[in-house]
Amino acid sequence: EFHQGSLNSRSSATSYALANTISTLVEVRGIGIGRTSFKRRAYTTFLVGLSYLRTAYDETAEVKQVLARAKAKPTEAVVKHQTPVTEVSMTLIDLESVEKKDFKVRMKDAWQTKAQVSRPRPRAYLLMPEQAKLAEKLKILGLKIDTLNQSRSVEVERYTVEYYLQEAEKYEGVHRQRVSTSITRIVKDLPAGTFVIRMDQDRAGLAVEALEPEAPNSFVNYDVLHTEEGAELPVYRYLNKEAL
Predict the structure, then answer these.
(1) What average pLDDT is seen over the chain?
(2) Residue range 176-219, pLDDT digits in tens
(3) Measured distance CA(237)–CA(158) in Å, rounded
(4) In the chain, which residue ranges form alpha helices assigned H by DSSP?
(5) Residue 22, CB half-sphere, CA atoms under 13 Å: how many?
(6) 34 alpha-carbon distance from chain centroid
(7) Residue 161 in contact with residue 179, Cβ under 8 Å?
(8) What is the C-alpha to C-alpha distance for residues 102 and 94, in angstroms, rounded to an integer?
(9) Distance spanning both ends of the chain, measured CA to CA
(10) Is 0.85 surpassed by the pTM of this model?
(11) 3-state class (DSSP) for residue 36
(12) pLDDT tens for residues 75-106?
């Protein structure tokens, strides 16, 4: 089974794309072949990178237009997705005959991915003042964060954990949390010092991935924000047009 592209934000190409850049994953042979054809492989990678730089330089105006459109018309916040497996024809080199041949292969193509759970993109995410740890991690990702200088009562969307499971085995040093949440509109009293992550910034896609609890690499999923069934998460979605 072949995998084409990645939707995992821990993949560098996907992470850069979430930061509102034009990002491409380029893979060069290397695993399991040591230093075989090392100079050729290194030079090939250099030529690909140089080609991208030249194109970006020659087409600066178009690149800026594409990024501006992406920022002005963001898609919904995709929380869960599924990539179908299809059978496709692929031309490969037969190692026995050293000839190109067409093979039928199973392909999991990221371009064909469909959203399973999506939500309207908020104008901002809000973190309670005691969540300074999460705010600092968002800053490390390059997100700009403001704070309320006085208390306010505003309409927000609240997450409530309806399903909860913490994995028994550790993955990358943590017991990951699997959750499903319901969302309800409430009027929330926000104290001074509440963190505001506005979604009209370049790296806003990273905020979606980190703060939507069901997202595969969210703070909840990796137990950075511990929770339990029935809990109200200290993260809120602000959708009103009125500026905070």
Answers:
(1) 92
(2) 999 999 999 999 999 999 999 999 898 999 999 999 999 999 99
(3) 7
(4) 12-18, 38-58, 60-72, 132-140, 204-211
(5) 14
(6) 32
(7) yes
(8) 9
(9) 49
(10) no
(11) coil
(12) 788 888 888 899 999 898 888 898 999 999 99
- For the chain, the structural domain boundaries read 1-73, 75-119, 120-238
What does the alpha-carbon distance between residue 218 and residue 18 come to, in Å, rounded to a whole number? 14
Which residues, 6 or more positions from 163, have their beta carbon under 8 angstroms from its beta carbon?
178, 179, 180, 229
* Distance between CA atoms of residues 203 and 132, nearest Å: 19
Instruction: Give the pair of three-digit tokens for residue 79.
Output: 């929380």
| CA atoms of 182 and 164, how far apart (whole Å) | 12
CA distance 237 to 159: 9
Question: What is the rounded CA–CA span in Å between residue 80 and residue 212?
Answer: 10
Residue 208 is encoded by which pair of tokens? Answer: 């979606």
Give the pair of three-digit tokens for residue 70.
Answer: 């992406």
Q: Which of 48, 15, 197 is nearest to 124 (CA)?
A: 197
- Closest alpha carbon to 25 in 40, 7, 44, 41: 7
In DSSP terms, which residues pair with 119 in a beta bridge?
77
Pairwise CA distance, residues 170 & 181, whole Å: 23
Instruction: Tell me the residue length of the chain.
Output: 244
Strands (E), the chain: 2-4, 77-82, 85-94, 99-109, 114-119, 124-127, 146-147, 152-166, 177-190, 195-198, 232-238
Contact 79, 118 (CB under 8 A): yes
CA distance 87 to 215: 28
